[in-house]
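the two lines:
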Amino acid sequence: MMQFKKLFIIVLLIATAPVNADWQQPELSHNLTPVKNITPASDFELSDMDDVKIKLSDYRGKVVLLNFWATWCPPCIREMPSMERLHQQVNAEDFKVIAINQMEDADQVFAFTGQLEIDPTFDILFDSTSKVSQDYAVRGLPTTYLIDKQGNIRYRAVGGRVFDHPKVIEIINGLIKE
Amino acid sequence: MLSVQRYTIRFHIIHMKKYINLTFNTLFFIISLLAINTTAAAAKVSIHKNEMSGLLTWTSEDEGFSIELIQLLPDFIRAIYGKHDFPDEEIERAASYCMFGTILKNTSNQQLSYRVANWRYRTKDGKEHPVKTKSEWLEEWKKVGILFSWTLLPDEGEFSVGDWQQGFTTINLPRESEFDLVYKWELDGVQYSGVLNNIRCAPESLTGI
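prediction for all of em together
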């Protein structure tokens, strides 16, 4: 019965997706807003797809793009390939992309990433209770922060973006050089 | 004689300046009034019909703020909350609301903010009603053990340049009801308001269109 219900929901979502395709209208910009009051990024420990625990502080000394997302969020889906391209373009020794999924599980995300035009190779972590998103005062998805090598929040973006835009790469390179 | 002429010229210049100033001030006042009127009338509202489904989308852009309301089918709402294991009665309660996918954008180059608590929907009897906020929903969901806190339009937003947000707006009206949405936003400390007239709730299903 439970299996049938899940199957029904998936069929329903697929069936209603095209009629709700208007959700995907807004153009994605590349604006990142400098944070006026620079504050330390709150540390966290979350599991990745392989259930390995990862802490934000593990990446101290690197610039981190921290993205909050979910599979049901259309702009999150749209910006994800650009996050992967960014991840591949910037030297991994200096830069890290972390995508924190909200209240979904590894099976749901695995099924979702299989449908993306580029398979994400960056860290996907699971914030199953949304505790971390609350610590970062995330009101809506997607929301993204750019954290400097000292662990301070320096830039913010609310809503989808094109992350491999030259202007974004220029900002990241600037933070790497600091 | 020369000094009298100079005085007369100065007198005329001073009066001309006063006159020019007065005229300029009057003109400025008239232009300002026109500008205010233009601002009120400048909101570009467009209605788009999805060719496949017949569902409607209303978009309005004015004073650095863009709002888009997209009709959502109850089945879409059922699917979204069913996916997150909501109890059946809560799924149905959510689906019984008139819901819209809502996209808010800061199209200005200034700081923008909004608060859903300041928004109203006006029914055909002329009465204004508060729009149910995300916090109100979360409080109700918490009582029945639902911790899922996403999909609904955040209660408030602080948008920098290029920021935008989306989520569901919930109106407590039956299917296919019509209403006006009165919404407000603040741009660099100045409050603005806009109205989207004759918004229509989605039907129960596509066959109703």
